[in-house]
Amino acid sequence: MDLLSQKTPLSQRRPFISSLMATIALLVPWLATSVAWATPQAAAAAKTAPAFNGALWTFYIFGALTIAGALLTITRRNPVTAALWLVFTLFATAGVYLSLHATFMAAIQVLVYAGAIMVLFMFVVMMVGNTERQEFGIMRGLFSKVVALGAIALLGWRLISLLMRQAPAKAAMVSDGYGSVHSMGGVLFREYLFPFEAISVLLLVAIVGAVVISRRSTEEKEEV
Amino acid sequence: MVPTGYVLVLAAVLFLLGLVGVVLRRNVIIVMMSVELMLNGVNMTLIGFARARGEMFGQAFSFMIIALAAAEAAVGLAILVAIFRTRRTVNVDEISLMRH
């Protein structure tokens, strides 16, 4: 079976990326405690404005890491390296969620996205191997690329200006249990029970579909 | 507390970086990773608005989007494996079977 025996060249950067991820994993609990200090309740209890805005600094740090990771994801030549940088980006996104007091979503982001979905990606990357010959294809269809990038730039400008205009000037105060498993369960199993069940059926259909699509047909099996 | 405008700008930048990846890259796997980046940008918008309103509904929506992304990745990667098995390529320029 030559699909699996294909060698994927080992990237030199992987130890560097994994050490970065370990640093983030150590950083998250510390910053999470700063977020807890920065809740309005804590500030009201102290009767003073917190000198260190933990949530904002968590947002700055992880926002910068998110953008850097996304840039590296879309520019890396080796798909394995790109996938690892995507994992890094998803971890950083979880940090951003923490700064927004969405603790349960941050945990789900790490477990489901950086865990389950990226393992799926890594499986396929390892199976297909590094077969990319022509990297960005910049010179091929240069005109259409320029038009597409111009359209993306225009869309980005409109998107950012629109979102900035829509943004409420002041964020609402949040209660103590905001973003916890308890409040999330309340919303999911009361207000959104039907969509929740529909999503589970969708996942089942997707699993069956994935098995059917990726299965070998019977005549191929006989050849092997 | 984080101003909502900052969150929305970060989400828009993430979305656009994913879009640039979808347009520029030729490897289907990396194109799919860029789609994941775009989904994350949308998720961040929802969670940012949930924080701004002090409600949980935005987070419930982003929870469902994550489940949807899992389904999308499973089916998409299965299609990718099937294409690679028959065509021996993951280059989006060479996968043009539907055009002929």
Unreliable parts of chain A:
1-13
- What is the element string of chain A, with H for helices and E for strands? HHHHHHHHHH
- Highest CATH level, the class of the domain at 15-130 in chain A: Mainly Alpha
Q: Estimate the helix proportion of chain A, in percent.
A: over 70%
Structural class of chain B: mainly alpha
Shape of chain B: elongated
The name CATH uses for the topology of chain B is Helix Hairpins
Sketch the major β-sheet of chain A: none
End-to-end distance of chain B: 55 Å
Task: Note down, in words, how this protein is organized.
The complex is a heterodimer of chains A (224) and B (100). With 224 residues, chain A is mainly α. Chain A has ten helices and no strands. In chain A, α2 (14-37) packs parallel to α5 (79-99) and α5 (79-99) runs antiparallel to α6 (103-128). Chain B is mainly α and 100 residues long. Chains A and B meet through α4, α5, α6, α7 and α8 of A and α1, α2 and α3 of B.
Helix-strand layout with pairing:
The complex is a heterodimer of chains A (224) and B (100).
Chain A: H1 2-5, H2 14-37, H3 40-46, H4 54-75, H5 79-99, H6 103-128, H7 142-166, H8 181-191, H9 193-214, H10 218-223
Chain B: H1 4-24, H2 28-53, H3 57-87
Helix pairs in contact in B: 1-2, 2-3
Q: What descriptors fit this protein?
A:
heterodimer; A: 224 residues; mainly alpha; Four Helix Bundle (Hemerythrin (Met), subunit A); B: 100 residues; Helix Hairpins; 3 helices
What's this entry about, in short?
Chain A has 224 residues and is mainly alpha-helical. Chain A has helices at residues 2-5, 14-37, 40-46, 54-75, 79-99, 103-128, 142-166, 181-191, 193-214, 218-223. Chain B has helices spanning 4-24, 28-53, 57-87.
